[in-house]
Amino acid sequence: MKKFIIYLFVIAATFIWGCNNRSQNVTTTSKVDSNKLPYDDPAFHGKISKTYNESEMEWPTLPAPAKGSPNVIVIMLDDVGFGMTGTFGGSIPTPCLDTLAMSGIMYNCFNTTAICGPSRAALLTGRNHHVSGNGFLAEWATGYPSYNTMIKRSTATVGAVLKYNGVNTSWFGKNHNTPDWETSAVGPFDRWPTGMGFDYFYGFNAGETDQYYPVIFQNTVPVEPAKSPEQGYHFMTDMTDKAINWLELQKSIAPDKPVFMYFAPGAAHAPHQPPQEWRDKFKGKFAYGWDKEREITYERQKKMGIIPADAKLSPRITSVPLWDTCSPDARKLYELLYENFAGYLAFADHEVGRLLKAIKSLPDADNTMIIYIVGDNGASSEGGLDGTLNEIKALSGIPTTIQDNLKNAGKIGKPGSEPHFPIGWAFAGNTPFPWVKQVASHFGGTRNPMVISWPKVIKHDGKMRSQFLHLIDVMPTILDVMKVKMPEYVNGVKQDPLDGRSFASTFANANAPEIRDTQYFEIFGNRAIYENGWVAAVQHTLPWRQDLAPGFDFEHEKWELYDVKKDFTEADNIADKNPEKLDHLKKLFYQEAEKYHVYPLDDRGAARLSVPKPSPLGNRTKFTFYEGATRIPETAAPNTKNRSWTMDAVVTTDAKHKDGVINAIGGSSAGYVLYVKNGYPTFVYNYFEDDVKTIKSSKKLPDGMVSIKVDFTYDGGGPGKGGVVTLYINNEKVAEGKIDRTVAARFGIDTFGIGEDDGSPVTHDYPAPFKFQGKIEEVNIELK
């Protein structure tokens, strides 16, 4: 036996020696065409003969990052105003952001587009948002190239460019850059994160998601939370865990290989949903109101050096009521809503802090560049004049009284609520600038803080960076520090040039020259143009009235003029004193608008939600769904709104397995559901929680195969009217009920499903997801 083992060893050694001697050239570096991605397969420079004895191996050289390239982590919060975080003078403590700023550098002239989807498109592509096709949001998309929200193949993302250069890429959290109608299980997936250059995605495909009942996808597959809200589930914690796990796995396998991560929490976008202990931290902290908060923040910002010492506080907007003129009940509600938001933002800082701690423990932590952008636009006024506990209802233009909201004050921030503070807190949150999210004409909509840390390269010098920068400058900066050239072609498509420029020159020099002299802004008809320290601006729409088009004349609006080198906060409109400068800037805006495809201007507000859009459903009016069809977005589900329709479900049950959801769409904000409980088929229509109608069968469901039919006869007379629901079992009428009002536009942020109610439940009559116990043979829906 011993001789046999020795014999095997000698044979193996001889084989290995022979292989090594026949394959002297194992790897070589082949020249590649850096003008196109992905690179061509490298040529083979080995030798191929009839047998391996005379042949020489050569492994192909794969793309690899340049030696010394850093890890790059881009963190972007959502709906956070310039003056909200403690790091930039606000009243909400953000100690983790403080720590990062104390080791890196801060920027106070960094600009976004004024709204989330366009901002993220600009960040990811390095092009202006209209150029990439994201002139506004996916839900409001129209059939014009700049507004169809279909990121063009000619504007490849930073993820794609880095991936093809050998960098592993990931995306966590919010994705509001996939067209609304492409987010179902049938795709196409070209414009999902994994189709836009990201190896791994864990997050949601929408402007927002419920933090307790999120609509989550891992790559392109829907997944459900492992825990319930009652068991402590929160999406912000979940996505942070997943991001840390991804980082640690990457560095466990290839510790020297740089990675790119895009970390985009839903926080602090509505619904504002912090865990209870974070909400409790801010009780009584904002009793003085939004006017005082604005003054306190402004003075603190000057003292901290966040803004120039001579900067004025911009004039208050007359649309915002003075705090002291609000009723005691109103002030009580407003205070509760902002305490809740403060808890949400502070909690987000804590979770980002966990990610930063994990980054600090990486083997190459010192060679990790963190770009932390504190908001994708200014603070949001979309909660309206009085705030709301049901954000989708508010965005639909449906008011709720202060008294009704106070009756439900105990629900604020908890599962089932979708709260948003009133506009007064948004103006305070954007201190010292005027206006709010959506208003791209003014810095209150577009100016966001930024912090960058890179221990190996950036040394904290305590000096504020005040160069005028824009989101489009982030991608060129990343490519610059990773020594990656922007190619002329990606996936065979000739690329539009990058609109941004690298600002890496500011890392070591607080007084580095400006990298850009001109930048336009436009969202919803709100417009501005920046040139060499001057801003011309025209505010057009009121963001808290998306249900109305303003009816303003684009051609004859009155523009404002600011010298922002002297007037940091846009406090002094000097248009009347400088008509020639204003005229020059207006003409420049028109030139830039043509160059970057801004037209046509469109101010229709929520009316754009009903603009016909592509759909995987086509023009069908008859649909058949089977068990397991879940997490279908509202835009890819049969549109039963503002019309008559029927649903006929064929199910098989036995005496012990009858209960559960058959079909549901929407959730706690609004929606409808057909379900069986205690054997009784039941239909519930939830109209924004104001009017929840239950139509329950008078008879139990019999055993075996059964038909359950819902017939809805619409009253007509316009959108959002009522109708009559008739319920049948095996074509026998078992219930009838009147629904007074129906949802005209969108149920909300939940989805359509067969056999379960994923996400927040449409009704509190059952715990979600309340999976059906029997077998669903098919569900047929017909639109009449």
How does this model look, in words?
The chain is of the alpha+beta class and 784 residues long. The chain folds into 2 domains: 71-516, Alkaline Phosphatase, subunit A (3-Layer(aba) Sandwich); 622-783, Jelly Rolls (Sandwich), CATH 2.60.120.200. It has 14 helices and 29 strands. Strands 3-11-10-2-9-5-6-7-8 form a 9-stranded mixed beta sheet. It has a 6-stranded antiparallel beta sheet with strand order 19-29-20-25-26-27, with no helix packed on it. Strand 21 and strand 22 (671-677) form a beta hairpin. Helix 5 runs parallel beside helix 8 (328-360) and helix 7 packs parallel to helix 11 (423-429). It is globular. The model is unreliable at 1-30 (pLDDT under 50).
What portion of residues belong to β-strands?
15-25%
* CATH class annotation of the largest domain: Alpha Beta
* Widest sheet: strand ordering: 3-11-10-2-9-5-6-7-8
Query: Helix proportion of residues, in percent?
Result: 10-25%
Structural class: alpha+beta
CATH architecture of the largest domain: 3-Layer(aba) Sandwich
